[in-house]
Amino acid sequence: MRDDPDAGEVAGALRTSIGLLVRRLRQLKAEGELTLPESAVLARLDRGGATTATALAKLEQISPQSMGATLAGLETRGLVKRGPDPQDGRRAVVSATKAGLRELRDRRNASAAELARALASGFSRSERKQLLVAATLLERLAQNL
Amino acid sequence: MRDDPDAGEVAGALRTSIGLLVRRLRQLKAEGELTLPESAVLARLDRGGATTATALAKLEQISPQSMGATLAGLETRGLVKRGPDPQDGRRAVVSATKAGLRELRDRRNASAAELARALASGFSRSERKQLLVAATLLERLAQNL
DNA sequence: TATTGTTATACTCTATAACTATA
DNA sequence: TATAGTTATAGAGTATAACAATA
Q: Average model confidence (pLDDT) for chain A?
């Protein structure tokens, strides 16, 4: 594959900006709130589709063990529940509880709210549209890596 | 795509896509390569401007102690060097070594190269341009948080 | 007193390896 | 044998607290 100077420039810019953003988001998380992977899982469960730890791990591109740890934390706080799969005794069917969905949508979730606030107040409508498109592109990029 | 994406929708989409991308980038890192924060620091030093741990920490939005740990790792491998500041005995002036700059630019750095490859092969020119614009917006977003 | 940096400690998120239970 | 999940352990990348040296 020939070097594409454009691609290198974009790669560098994305690495820098994404690194900064992730760190800020982590810092904004307050006591008792959902972490990034936790809200990602709840959002997946809300959308439906995946219902086992392994399936969720594949979607989030992490190991099943890591997903297990995340799910265990959510279960302890009553935000998801796990039950047996009648068809396959090895599987545990994961679902979001009402409390979990409430937590996910709760606008008091500081980091999500802060992010939304910053987007609403510091960016124009067309910039928000650009960012929404970019999010789609970034997701595709992650999958193509 | 809607005309007026509300801030909450954009916030959610960005959180999901950015989380995925960061995880993939970390997974791609091979033995002995630069980590994300390490290449960020070297890139800052290359661009010039900041030369102390505290200044770099502010730019990267992490604590001075965390930056100290990153710099110590880089120094051990000879990629940066720290010397005394003649004007202020408390400060240590940090600079990238030739080996550090070489490492930064080295196309064999697997994760950076993979990212560039994926961008070059899976995205159109105009999509790459969109992503470059988005990177600027994301950096602004991180600073406004 | 305030600032720069270091050391010590701990948390989150992730990984791999070894194991059990089920298919 | 292969798959779903658990437990144990480790590493990266952060954080805060307590400290020393210098301004």
A: 89
**CB within 8 A of A65, min separation 6: which ones?**
none
Q: How many Å apart are A84 CA and C22 C1'?
A: 12
CA nearest neighbour of B46 among B91, B109, B124, B103: B103
**Beta carbons of B15 and A36 less than 8 Å apart:** yes
Torsion of CA B127, B128, B129, B130, to 10 degrees: 50
**Fold (CATH) for B34-106:** Arc Repressor Mutant, subunit A (1.10.10)
CA distance A130 to A111: 21
C-beta atoms of A142 and B1 within 8 A? no
Q: What's the Cα-to-Cα distance from A33 to each of A76, A117, B55, B85, rounded to whole Å?
A: 14, 17, 30, 43
| Predicted local confidence at residue A12, as pLDDT | 87
Domain assignments of chain B as residue spans, ordered by start: 1-33+109-145, 34-106
- Which tokens hold the place of A9? 């420039």
pLDDT digits (tens, 9 = 90+) for A101-117: 998 887 667 788 889 99
Instruction: Give me the pLDDT at residue B133, please.
Output: 95
pTM: 0.87
